[in-house]
Design brief:
Number of helices of chain A: 6
Oligomer: heterodimer
Shape of chain A: globular
Number of strands of chain A: 0
Strand content of chain A: under 5%
Strand content of chain B: 5-15%
CATH superfamily of chain B: Winged helix-like DNA-binding domain superfamily/Winged helix DNA-binding domain
Helix content of chain A: over 70%
CATH class of chain B: Mainly Alpha
Distance between the termini of chain B: 37 Å
Shape of chain B: globular
Distance between the termini of chain A: 36 Å
Radius of gyration of chain A: 19 Å
Largest sheet of chain A: none
């Protein structure tokens, strides 16, 4: 009898990495409040940690298949997932490099454009894949295997990781863009609901296309 | 990570990964692209599966393979493709180097 594992294999390092970085970000916040870190160093460290979160999530995204086996044109869906992974990793590298190397004012003013630009690019690409006319399966390529239980679990966890990352990135970006006004935090919280609705709609479109096949 | 390096060191396995970029394929469809025996192909699939680079799922009588590659592994694959990274060449080089050392 095989032992049932709490997390499917490809998801484990992504979840562990994300949790570790979140714990470090919380520790940074406490250290700043306790006066162990000065404000500038604390802000830099948080920026680097957000960049690392994007890198970790992006690296494992194609393995977690957040859109996996949903749609009809599986090759195109997998390519969109790989592209999203690359975009997130590059976004993370740019974000971390900005906060590690650039003057803090410049890093803070550029970071929202880097982050929101990357997330926007992924959203546009996924919507393009969801809405594009179905192509005939390429020669030699087969049909998608049905997503088993572990596939569905993996997709759910991938979606949660993406929501968490999007919340962190959007909250950080809005804080900078609004110059710390209180409505920014509220808007960031609402954005999670926005992401959930957008992902559900995307899921519904892919599912509809799969059934219509 | 050693398993990933081992999997990517073979040109046949790299070609399998390239083919799977198009979408899921059955073992038979993949084997049709190579002039090697079925047991050899099965061994290649086992190495790729062991490294977590592909996922196998049974669909009736067919075994369907799907690419399951992280961004880092994708970058390593591209690197291996560009530079013709082949670990099988290493023992020959090592033998040559050893011969030179002992002939001194």
């Amino acid at each position: 009898m095989t032992r049932r594992q709490i997390l499917p294999r490809p998801v484990r390092p992504a979840v562990a990495g994300f949790l570790l970085l979140t714990a470090l970000a919380v520790a940074c916040g406490f250290a700043r409040r306790a006066g162990l870190l000065d404000a500038a160093t604390g802000r830099r460290a948080l920026g680097v940690l957000v960049g690392l979160m994007a890198m970790v999530t992006g690296n494992f995204l194609p393995k977690m298949r957040p859109l996996g086996a949903m749609g009809g044109d599986t090759g195109a869906v997998a390519a969109a997932e790989r592209a999203a992974g690359w975009i997130l990793v590059l976004l993370g590298v740019a974000y971390a490099a900005l906060f590690a190397l650039a003057p803090l004012d410049l890093a803070e003013s550029l970071s929202p454009f880097v982050a929101l630009g990357g997330i926007g690019l992924i959203a546009v690409d996924w919507i393009r894949v969801a809405l594009r006319p179905r192509s005939r399966a390429r020669e030699g390529a087969g049909t998608a295997p049905t997503a088993g239980q572990s596939g569905a679990e993996r997709r759910t966890l991938a979606a949660w990781l993406l929501f968490a990352l999007a919340y962190v990135v959007v909250a950080a970006s809005l804080k900078v863009l609004s110059e710390g006004r209180p409505w920014a935090r509220e808007l960031a919280s609402w954005s999670v609901i926005g992401f959930t609705i957008a992902y559900s709609l995307l899921y519904a479109v892919f599912d509809f296309r799969k059934r219509a096949r | 990570m050693t398993a990933v390096f081992k999997a990517l060191s073979d040109p046949t396995r790299r070609r399998v990964l390239q083919l799977l970029r198009r979408g899921p394929m059955s073992a038979g469809q993949l084997a049709g692209h190579f002039r090697v025996s079925k047991p050899t192909m099965s061994a290649h699939f086992a190495v790729l599966r062991g490294a977590g680079l592909i996922e196998a799922e049974r669909q009736g009588k067919l075994i369907m393979y799907t690419l399951q590659i992280s961004v880092l592994e994708d970058a390593l694959l591209a690197f291996a493709q560009v530079f013709g990274w082949d670990l099988r060449a290493r023992p020959a080089r090592a033998r040559r180097a050893a011969t030179e050392v002992f002939s001194r």
